[in-house]
Amino acid sequence: MKTKLGAVVAAALIAAPLAANAQSATNLPGFYVGAEGGLNWLNLRTFGNAKEKLGFAAGAVVGYDFVGPRVELEPVYRYNKVSGFKMHQYSAFVNVLYDFMTDSVISPHLGIGAGINYWKIKGTGISTTDFAMQGIAGVALKISDGFYGSLDYKFMNTFAKGKDFQNHTAMLTLGYKFGAPAPAAPPPPVVGPTPAQYIVFFDFDRATLTAQAQATIKQAADAAKSGNRTRVGVTGHADRAGGDAYNMALSLRRANAVKDALVREGIPATGITVVGRGESQPLVPTADGVREPQNRRVEIVLQ
Protein backbone atom coordinates (compact mmCIF):
# COMPACT_ATOMS: atom_id res chain seq x y z
CA MET A 1 0.00 0.00 0.00
CA LYS A 2 2.90 2.36 0.66
CA THR A 3 3.98 1.95 -2.96
CA LYS A 4 0.49 2.84 -4.22
CA LEU A 5 0.22 5.89 -2.00
CA GLY A 6 3.65 7.06 -3.05
CA ALA A 7 2.65 6.89 -6.73
CA VAL A 8 -0.40 9.02 -6.07
CA VAL A 9 1.47 11.61 -4.01
CA ALA A 10 4.37 11.90 -6.47
CA ALA A 11 2.46 14.14 -8.87
CA ALA A 12 1.88 16.76 -6.20
CA LEU A 13 5.48 16.69 -4.99
CA ILE A 14 6.78 17.50 -8.48
CA ALA A 15 5.15 20.94 -8.24
CA ALA A 16 7.02 21.97 -5.07
CA PRO A 17 10.43 23.04 -6.48
CA LEU A 18 8.76 24.97 -9.33
CA ALA A 19 6.24 26.89 -7.28
CA ALA A 20 8.61 29.72 -6.37
CA ASN A 21 9.24 30.54 -10.04
CA ALA A 22 5.60 30.67 -11.17
CA GLN A 23 4.43 34.16 -12.23
CA SER A 24 0.86 35.37 -11.73
CA ALA A 25 1.07 39.12 -12.31
CA THR A 26 -1.75 39.34 -14.84
CA ASN A 27 -4.38 37.20 -13.06
CA LEU A 28 -6.67 37.85 -10.15
CA PRO A 29 -7.80 35.41 -7.44
CA GLY A 30 -11.43 34.33 -7.43
CA PHE A 31 -14.00 31.55 -7.27
CA TYR A 32 -14.64 29.23 -10.20
CA VAL A 33 -17.15 26.52 -11.16
CA GLY A 34 -17.13 23.88 -13.86
CA ALA A 35 -18.82 20.81 -15.29
CA GLU A 36 -16.74 17.82 -16.37
CA GLY A 37 -17.15 14.61 -18.32
CA GLY A 38 -15.02 11.95 -19.95
CA LEU A 39 -13.95 8.30 -20.16
CA ASN A 40 -13.11 5.98 -17.27
CA TRP A 41 -11.09 2.76 -17.35
CA LEU A 42 -11.47 0.56 -14.27
CA ASN A 43 -8.72 -1.77 -13.07
CA LEU A 44 -10.13 -4.31 -10.56
CA ARG A 45 -6.79 -5.72 -9.48
CA THR A 46 -8.06 -7.88 -6.59
CA PHE A 47 -11.42 -9.06 -7.98
CA GLY A 48 -10.25 -12.33 -9.45
CA ASN A 49 -11.15 -12.85 -13.11
CA ALA A 50 -13.47 -9.84 -13.37
CA LYS A 51 -13.46 -8.30 -16.83
CA GLU A 52 -13.77 -4.54 -17.09
CA LYS A 53 -14.99 -2.40 -19.98
CA LEU A 54 -14.40 1.22 -20.77
CA GLY A 55 -17.01 3.42 -19.08
CA PHE A 56 -17.68 7.07 -18.53
CA ALA A 57 -17.41 9.68 -15.79
CA ALA A 58 -19.20 12.95 -15.07
CA GLY A 59 -18.87 15.50 -12.30
CA ALA A 60 -18.45 19.10 -11.25
CA VAL A 61 -15.88 21.35 -9.59
CA VAL A 62 -16.29 24.30 -7.24
CA GLY A 63 -13.12 26.01 -6.11
CA TYR A 64 -11.08 29.10 -5.33
CA ASP A 65 -8.07 30.15 -7.39
CA PHE A 66 -5.28 31.92 -5.49
CA VAL A 67 -3.41 32.39 -8.81
CA GLY A 68 -0.95 29.53 -8.87
CA PRO A 69 -2.32 27.33 -6.09
CA ARG A 70 -6.04 26.56 -5.98
CA VAL A 71 -8.37 24.40 -3.89
CA GLU A 72 -11.57 22.75 -5.12
CA LEU A 73 -14.38 20.37 -4.17
CA GLU A 74 -15.11 17.72 -6.80
CA PRO A 75 -18.08 15.28 -6.80
CA VAL A 76 -17.75 12.61 -9.52
CA TYR A 77 -19.92 9.74 -10.83
CA ARG A 78 -18.22 6.83 -12.66
CA TYR A 79 -19.89 3.97 -14.52
CA ASN A 80 -18.36 0.73 -15.86
CA LYS A 81 -19.51 -2.77 -16.74
CA VAL A 82 -17.75 -5.57 -14.86
CA SER A 83 -18.24 -9.13 -16.18
CA GLY A 84 -21.72 -8.20 -17.37
CA PHE A 85 -22.68 -6.38 -14.16
CA LYS A 86 -23.03 -2.60 -13.82
CA MET A 87 -20.65 -0.88 -11.40
CA HIS A 88 -21.52 2.57 -10.07
CA GLN A 89 -19.08 4.82 -8.17
CA TYR A 90 -19.88 8.06 -6.33
CA SER A 91 -16.84 10.05 -5.19
CA ALA A 92 -16.25 13.33 -3.37
CA PHE A 93 -12.74 14.81 -3.34
CA VAL A 94 -10.98 17.85 -2.00
CA ASN A 95 -8.27 18.68 -4.55
CA VAL A 96 -5.23 20.90 -4.17
CA LEU A 97 -3.67 21.95 -7.49
CA TYR A 98 -0.93 24.23 -8.77
CA ASP A 99 -1.11 26.08 -12.11
CA PHE A 100 2.10 26.88 -13.97
CA MET A 101 2.50 29.64 -16.60
CA THR A 102 -0.56 31.48 -15.25
CA ASP A 103 0.17 34.49 -17.48
CA SER A 104 -0.25 32.35 -20.62
CA VAL A 105 -3.40 31.39 -22.50
CA ILE A 106 -2.43 27.73 -22.02
CA SER A 107 -1.20 26.64 -18.58
CA PRO A 108 -0.34 23.13 -17.27
CA HIS A 109 -1.19 22.03 -13.74
CA LEU A 110 -0.56 19.23 -11.24
CA GLY A 111 -2.57 18.26 -8.19
CA ILE A 112 -3.58 15.74 -5.57
CA GLY A 113 -6.95 14.94 -4.04
CA ALA A 114 -8.30 13.01 -1.07
CA GLY A 115 -11.83 11.94 -0.24
CA ILE A 116 -14.27 9.04 -0.18
CA ASN A 117 -15.57 6.70 -2.87
CA TYR A 118 -18.84 4.79 -2.55
CA TRP A 119 -19.20 1.96 -5.05
CA LYS A 120 -21.62 -0.87 -5.74
CA ILE A 121 -21.96 -3.63 -8.32
CA LYS A 122 -25.64 -3.78 -9.17
CA GLY A 123 -27.25 -7.20 -8.80
CA THR A 124 -24.49 -8.68 -6.62
CA GLY A 125 -25.08 -7.03 -3.27
CA ILE A 126 -21.45 -5.90 -3.23
CA SER A 127 -20.98 -2.29 -2.12
CA THR A 128 -18.89 -0.27 0.30
CA THR A 129 -17.49 3.18 1.02
CA ASP A 130 -13.71 3.54 0.98
CA PHE A 131 -11.07 6.18 1.50
CA ALA A 132 -9.58 7.18 -1.86
CA MET A 133 -6.88 9.45 -3.28
CA GLN A 134 -6.19 10.74 -6.75
CA GLY A 135 -3.36 12.35 -8.68
CA ILE A 136 -4.15 14.95 -11.34
CA ALA A 137 -2.18 16.19 -14.36
CA GLY A 138 -3.64 18.43 -17.02
CA VAL A 139 -3.59 21.59 -19.08
CA ALA A 140 -6.05 24.50 -19.05
CA LEU A 141 -7.03 26.89 -21.84
CA LYS A 142 -8.30 30.41 -21.09
CA ILE A 143 -11.08 31.13 -23.57
CA SER A 144 -12.55 34.62 -22.93
CA ASP A 145 -14.44 36.71 -20.36
CA GLY A 146 -13.67 34.28 -17.52
CA PHE A 147 -14.50 31.06 -19.40
CA TYR A 148 -11.92 28.26 -19.51
CA GLY A 149 -11.46 24.65 -20.61
CA SER A 150 -9.32 21.95 -19.03
CA LEU A 151 -8.18 18.49 -20.15
CA ASP A 152 -7.04 16.23 -17.28
CA TYR A 153 -5.83 12.74 -16.53
CA LYS A 154 -6.91 11.54 -13.07
CA PHE A 155 -5.59 8.44 -11.36
CA MET A 156 -7.81 7.33 -8.45
CA ASN A 157 -6.90 4.54 -6.03
CA THR A 158 -9.12 3.10 -3.30
CA PHE A 159 -7.67 1.57 -0.17
CA ALA A 160 -10.20 -1.10 0.79
CA LYS A 161 -8.47 -4.10 2.29
CA GLY A 162 -8.68 -7.00 -0.17
CA LYS A 163 -10.78 -5.00 -2.66
CA ASP A 164 -8.68 -2.04 -3.66
CA PHE A 165 -8.91 -0.98 -7.30
CA GLN A 166 -7.85 1.83 -9.59
CA ASN A 167 -9.58 4.24 -11.97
CA HIS A 168 -7.88 5.94 -14.91
CA THR A 169 -10.03 8.87 -16.02
CA ALA A 170 -9.63 11.28 -18.96
CA MET A 171 -11.78 14.30 -18.13
CA LEU A 172 -12.74 17.42 -20.08
CA THR A 173 -13.92 20.40 -17.99
CA LEU A 174 -15.69 23.56 -19.11
CA GLY A 175 -15.86 26.26 -16.45
CA TYR A 176 -16.15 29.89 -15.51
CA LYS A 177 -14.02 31.98 -13.16
CA PHE A 178 -15.80 34.86 -11.41
CA GLY A 179 -14.29 38.28 -10.97
CA ALA A 180 -12.49 38.40 -14.31
CA PRO A 181 -11.30 41.98 -14.86
CA ALA A 182 -13.20 44.05 -17.39
CA PRO A 183 -11.17 45.19 -20.40
CA ALA A 184 -9.42 48.48 -19.78
CA ALA A 185 -11.04 51.52 -21.33
CA PRO A 186 -8.96 53.22 -24.03
CA PRO A 187 -7.19 56.39 -22.91
CA PRO A 188 -9.02 59.63 -23.72
CA PRO A 189 -7.85 61.34 -26.90
CA VAL A 190 -5.35 64.13 -26.48
CA VAL A 191 -7.07 67.41 -27.21
CA GLY A 192 -4.83 69.98 -28.85
CA PRO A 193 -4.32 72.00 -32.01
CA THR A 194 -3.57 70.11 -35.20
CA PRO A 195 -0.03 70.80 -36.47
CA ALA A 196 0.01 73.27 -39.40
CA GLN A 197 2.60 73.06 -42.16
CA TYR A 198 4.00 75.62 -44.61
CA ILE A 199 6.57 75.05 -47.39
CA VAL A 200 9.11 77.59 -48.63
CA PHE A 201 10.85 76.88 -51.98
CA PHE A 202 14.33 78.03 -53.10
CA ASP A 203 16.18 78.57 -56.36
CA PHE A 204 18.84 76.10 -57.42
CA ASP A 205 21.93 76.15 -55.19
CA ARG A 206 20.59 79.18 -53.27
CA ALA A 207 19.64 79.87 -49.64
CA THR A 208 18.24 83.34 -50.25
CA LEU A 209 14.55 84.02 -49.74
CA THR A 210 12.39 84.93 -52.71
CA ALA A 211 9.45 87.31 -52.42
CA GLN A 212 7.09 84.34 -52.45
CA ALA A 213 9.12 82.65 -49.70
CA GLN A 214 8.97 85.77 -47.52
CA ALA A 215 5.19 85.96 -48.00
CA THR A 216 4.83 82.31 -46.93
CA ILE A 217 7.02 82.89 -43.86
CA LYS A 218 4.93 85.89 -42.83
CA GLN A 219 1.77 83.81 -43.21
CA ALA A 220 3.26 81.08 -40.99
CA ALA A 221 4.39 83.61 -38.36
CA ASP A 222 0.94 85.25 -38.24
CA ALA A 223 -0.70 81.82 -37.83
CA ALA A 224 1.71 80.90 -35.04
CA LYS A 225 1.00 84.10 -33.11
CA SER A 226 -2.78 84.04 -33.58
CA GLY A 227 -3.07 80.32 -32.80
CA ASN A 228 -0.80 80.43 -29.75
CA ARG A 229 1.63 77.95 -31.33
CA THR A 230 4.63 77.84 -29.02
CA ARG A 231 6.80 75.40 -30.96
CA VAL A 232 7.97 75.85 -34.55
CA GLY A 233 9.92 73.22 -36.45
CA VAL A 234 12.03 74.31 -39.43
CA THR A 235 13.45 71.51 -41.61
CA GLY A 236 15.67 72.21 -44.64
CA HIS A 237 15.99 70.01 -47.75
CA ALA A 238 17.97 69.93 -51.00
CA ASP A 239 17.57 68.22 -54.36
CA ARG A 240 19.95 65.47 -55.52
CA ALA A 241 22.22 67.63 -57.61
CA GLY A 242 25.58 67.83 -55.84
CA GLY A 243 27.25 65.74 -53.16
CA ASP A 244 25.69 64.55 -49.90
CA ALA A 245 27.88 66.72 -47.63
CA TYR A 246 27.31 69.83 -49.71
CA ASN A 247 23.54 69.30 -49.84
CA MET A 248 23.40 68.75 -46.06
CA ALA A 249 25.14 72.08 -45.47
CA LEU A 250 22.90 73.79 -48.06
CA SER A 251 19.74 72.46 -46.39
CA LEU A 252 20.92 73.86 -43.03
CA ARG A 253 21.64 77.29 -44.57
CA ARG A 254 18.13 77.33 -46.01
CA ALA A 255 16.59 76.33 -42.69
CA ASN A 256 18.53 79.02 -40.80
CA ALA A 257 17.49 81.63 -43.36
CA VAL A 258 13.85 80.76 -42.68
CA LYS A 259 14.45 80.82 -38.92
CA ASP A 260 15.96 84.31 -39.09
CA ALA A 261 12.96 85.53 -41.10
CA LEU A 262 10.54 84.04 -38.53
CA VAL A 263 12.42 85.84 -35.73
CA ARG A 264 12.08 89.10 -37.63
CA GLU A 265 8.34 88.43 -37.82
CA GLY A 266 8.15 88.20 -34.03
CA ILE A 267 8.58 84.46 -33.35
CA PRO A 268 10.94 83.85 -30.36
CA ALA A 269 14.16 82.13 -31.44
CA THR A 270 13.98 79.86 -28.38
CA GLY A 271 10.78 78.29 -29.72
CA ILE A 272 12.26 77.41 -33.13
CA THR A 273 13.99 74.08 -33.84
CA VAL A 274 16.21 73.90 -36.94
CA VAL A 275 17.06 70.61 -38.71
CA GLY A 276 18.83 69.88 -42.01
CA ARG A 277 17.97 66.73 -43.97
CA GLY A 278 20.09 67.27 -47.07
CA GLU A 279 18.84 65.21 -50.03
CA SER A 280 17.63 62.26 -47.86
CA GLN A 281 13.90 63.10 -47.89
CA PRO A 282 12.89 64.32 -51.35
CA LEU A 283 9.35 65.49 -51.92
CA VAL A 284 9.61 64.14 -55.47
CA PRO A 285 11.85 61.04 -55.81
CA THR A 286 14.53 61.47 -58.48
CA ALA A 287 17.73 59.85 -59.63
CA ASP A 288 21.02 61.08 -58.20
CA GLY A 289 22.21 64.33 -59.82
CA VAL A 290 18.75 65.42 -60.99
CA ARG A 291 17.58 68.97 -60.25
CA GLU A 292 14.04 69.11 -58.86
CA PRO A 293 12.52 72.49 -57.76
CA GLN A 294 10.09 70.93 -55.27
CA ASN A 295 12.93 69.22 -53.38
CA ARG A 296 14.70 72.56 -52.79
CA ARG A 297 12.55 73.52 -49.84
CA VAL A 298 12.12 74.29 -46.13
CA GLU A 299 9.15 72.90 -44.22
CA ILE A 300 7.70 74.97 -41.36
CA VAL A 301 5.56 73.04 -38.86
CA LEU A 302 3.58 74.88 -36.17
CA GLN A 303 2.66 72.99 -32.99
Describe the structure concisely.
With 303 residues, the protein is α+β, with helices and mostly antiparallel strands. It is built from three helices and twelve strands.
What's the helix and strand layout?
Elements: H1 2-14, E1 30-43, E2 55-65, E3 69-82, E4 85-99, E5 106-121, E6 126-142, E7 147-158, E8 166-177, E9 196-201, H2 211-226, E10 232-236, H3 244-264, E11 272-276, E12 297-302
Parallel strand pairs: 10-11
Antiparallel strand pairs: 1-2, 1-8, 2-3, 3-4, 4-5, 5-6, 6-7, 7-8, 9-12, 10-12
Word description of this protein:
- The protein has 303 residues and is of the alpha+beta class.
- The chain is built from 3 helices and 12 strands, in the order H-E-E-E-E-E-E-E-E-E-H-E-H-E-E.
- The strands form 2 sheets. The chain has an 8-stranded antiparallel beta barrel.
- A hairpin with a 3-residue loop joins strand 2 (55-65) and strand 3 (69-82).
Global geometry: rod-shaped
Report the count of strand segments. 12
- Order of adjacent strands in the largest pleated sheet: 1-2-3-4-5-6-7-8
Percentage of residues in helical conformation? 10-25%
Report the portion of residues in β strands: 35-45%
Radius of gyration: 38 Å
Rounded to the nearest angstrom, the distance between the terminal CA atoms is 80 Å
The number of helical runs is 3
What characterizes the major β-sheet?
Answer: 8 strands, antiparallel, barrel
The ordered string of helix (H) and strand (E) elements is HEEEEEEEEEHEHEE
Structural class: alpha+beta
Unreliable stretches? 1-26
Mean pLDDT, as a whole number? 85
